[in-house]
Specification:
7-stranded mixed beta sheet; alpha/beta; globular
């Protein structure tokens, strides 16, 4: 784009990004330490990380994990500078990479490879709200083709929010919360069957809904193959990893009804190659998709459609900047190598592709960050 809006940074007191570091991160670290019996040394390192990221300067990585070289390149421009000056997207990503190092995720020892967020993901997967949502999938076979198309897309957009069960069981579209797009716009991309790539966001109930969308793409012939991309390491608390895919899938196949059947079809799809699982290192990078490496860019260029799920993928897709909300979506994503569909609940400040009337109706409230609105936006190169 010719116009580059200012980057969103974490230094403005009271801003959404500032609150993430000064309010959300302290609460999250308390949760991490409560969920796993880390010793005093780990807890002290986490406390030091919190202090550094709220009042100090950016320190370099001091571990020798396999991804150290990549992160050294990604952080070179910011080491030694005050955290308050750093871009929000970069800062959040580096915070979580440093958190993994602090808990011993990469080093030989008792916590090597132990996901510090696994207890939270498991609790969400086993929660009453997720159980209600998964049970609601039993209604899908009774819906018309158009209703089922709409229901699985809404499920993928809204994840495991409580009202999703109502939407699935009634066929109600959930369009009231959408600020852009809809199911018909999404399905209009799938005019011929081909390989579809889905870049996942969260684990637990949202990942279950993503698997239901993958199943629907294959059973309706909209895709002849689906590639599911997840994070290679734990990230942003709830983001899906390969272990989370297996955990959710094992949970689904043990359930009765339609959701169990979906789980079994996904299981067989993985066994027979109709579904492939990927975990490219770039999905944990602290930069946006304009900087993706050639191997990933070439793979996504072969997709008939790439589906990008969630708020973080949206920020990386359009650029985590203070864009005018009327900036055309097609213009913001013109760099992307394939037709794209963004399915996102709004949980951060960046948004593009809205019309003036919608913006006027939304007003000045916290609609960008409250999680009460969503969008479906699509474009072809």
């Amino acid at each position: 784009m010719e116009f580059e809006a200012p980057l969103i940074t974490i230094g403005e007191p009271g801003s959404f990004a500032w609150k993430v570091f000064h309010e959300r991160h302290p609460a999250m670290l308390e949760q991490v330490c409560s969920a796993t019996p880390y010793g005093a040394e780990v807890r002290d390192e986490l406390a030091e990380l919190l202090s550094e990221t709220t009042t100090g300067v950016v320190a370099p990585l001091d571990d020798q994990a396999p991804d150290h070289g990549r992160w050294a390149a990604w952080t070179a421009d910011w080491v030694g500078r005050p955290w308050r000056e750093t871009p929000f997207l970069w800062a959040e990503s580096y915070f979580f990479r440093r958190l993994l190092a602090a808990v011993g995720y990469f080093e030989p020892g008792p916590w090597c490879g132990v996901d510090p967020f696994a207890p939270m993901k498991l609790a969400e997967l086993r929660s009453a709200a997720t159980a209600e949502t998964l049970k609601a999938f039993d209604a899908l076979p009774g819906l018309t083709g158009d209703e089922r198309d709409a229901a699985v897309v809404q499920a993928a957009v809204w994840g495991n929010q409580a009202d999703l069960a109502f939407q699935l069981s009634t066929g109600v579209s959930g369009a009231a919360g959408l600020v852009a797009g809809g199911s018909q716009e999404f399905w209009s991309l799938f005019d011929t069957a081909g390989p579809v790539h889905l870049v996942a966001d969260n684990a637990a109930g949202e990942l279950a809904a993503d698997l239901a969308l993958i199943d629907h793409l294959l059973t309706t012939g909209r895709a002849d193959r689906v590639v599911l991309h997840v994070k290679p390491t734990p990230y942003y608390v709830s983001d899906a990893t390969p272990a989370d895919v297996l955990g959710v899938l094992r949970h689904l196949v043990e359930l009765p009804g339609e959701v169990g059947a979906i789980g079994q079809r996904i299981w067989e799809g993985l066994r027979h190659g109709r579904i492939e699982l990927r975990a490219h290192p770039f999905f944990c990078a602290p930069v946006d998709y304009r900087a993706m490496p050639d191997d990933l860019r070439n793979e996504l260029a072969s997709a008939a459609v790439t589906i990008l799920k969630g708020d973080l993928n949206y920020r990386r897709l359009v650029g985590d900047r203070y864009w005018p909300a009327t900036t055309p979506f097609a213009e913001a994503v013109s760099h992307f190598p394939s037709p794209v569909a963004a399915l996102r609940v709004l949980k951060s400040e960046v948004v593009v592709g809205l019309d003036e009337a919608t913006i006027a109706d939304l007003g000045e409230g916290p609609w960008r960050t409250s999680g009460s609105h969503a969008l479906i936006q699509t474009t072809r190169p």
